[in-house]
Write a structure and sequence with these properties.
single chain; 297 residues; alpha+beta; DNA primase, PRIM domain; Alpha-Beta Plaits; 6-stranded antiparallel beta sheet; 5-stranded mixed beta sheet; 17 strands
Length: 297
């Protein structure tokens, strides 16, 4: 297995097992290369947000583990933040999260086989103060036989409902079977209650297509509008993150035109190479998340 010492923006990193397959046809070296190349558009979405890493050290067909706490071998140049975690499964009141603010930290995480990077809808300040959320997110999860095609339809309905409340929304694929809709807002402690109420309104207006209840029995052939990821303790997969499946797919920002014209689930599946080509063409389609902040109604 190949190992390599590299310099990344002045940090010395030892990369290991570069030719090990983390996906059946995609090596660890290719994972690291993807994250290094996507960094210019991905890092702004990770900045100041404590990251939960999901690691597959032996590849996607073997076991995974969630890592919130910084491991003991974390380099001293990696930014960490001590965050309250009441009710944590570890039994600890706080955890030391990693904050992926720069390219060396992103490459270091990729070298640990952190294929998926998940972040909350809130940020921390320079000294670690936890701010109120500055994003609302809706996870549109189709229940079979519904697919992402139906999720696109629901996304458009939800976009219109949010627009009636004076809010703009921006879509990305989950990288699996659904969609995420982001709403940039001025910091607010009310995001969870607002998102729940909006999902319920949409379900009331379109009961044949939309479900807002957690109970999985109601989801067959409908799209579950999951508002629960606005709970401050929860996270959503970050824009441009890889997802673990047999083939590497990317949680990819998309245009409303693409959602309008989606006729087949395969239309909205993007490989790492396709995601990078889209960035070359469009730049970051979610760049507006940083500037277009509106108050919740």
């Amino acid at each position: 297995m190949s190992n390599e010492q590299v310099d990344v923006e002045g940090r010395r990193l030892k990369l290991s097992n570069l030719d090990k397959n983390l996906y059946p046809d995609f090596t660890k070296g290719e994972v690291i290369d993807y994250y290094a190349r996507v960094a210019p558009v991905m890092l702004p979405h990770l900045k100041d947000r404590p990251a939960t890493r999901i690691r597959w050290p032996d590849g996607v067909r073997q076991g995974r583990f969630f890592e919130k706490n910084a491991p003991s071998h974390t380099p001293d140049w990696v930014r960490t933040a001590t965050i309250p975690t009441p009710g944590s499964s570890t039994g600890r009141d706080t955890l030391d999260f990693i904050v992926i603010d720069d390219l060396p930290t992103l490459v270091w995480c990729a070298n640990l086989a952190a294929l998926e990077l998940h972040v909350p809808q809130w940020k921390i300040g320079p000294r670690g103060k936890v701010h109120d959320p500055d994003l609302v997110v809706f996870d549109l999860d189709p229940g079979a036989p519904a697919t992402i095609v139906e999720a696109c339809q629901v996304a458009r309905l939800l976009r219109d409902l949010l627009a009636d409340d004076g809010l703009d929304s921006y879509p990305k694929t989950s990288g699996k079977k659904g969609l995420h809709l982001y709403v940039p807002i001025r910091e607010s402690a009310r995001t969870s209650e607002y998102a729940k109420a909006a999902a319920q309104r949409l379900s009331d207006e379109h009961p044949d297509l939309v479900v807002a209840k957690m109970d999985k029995r109601h989801r067959k052939g409908k799209v579950f509008v999951d508002w629960s990821q606005n709970n401050p303790a929860k996270t959503t997969v970050a824009p441009y993150s890889l997802r673990a499946a047999d083939s590497p797919s990317v949680s990819t920002p998309v245009t409303w035109d693409e959602l309008e014209s989606c006729a087949d689930a395969a239309d909205l599946v993007f490989s790492p190479d396709e995601a990078l080509a889209r960035i070359d063409e469009h730049g970051d389609l979610l760049e507006t998340l940083f500037t277009d902040r509106r108050s919740l109604p």
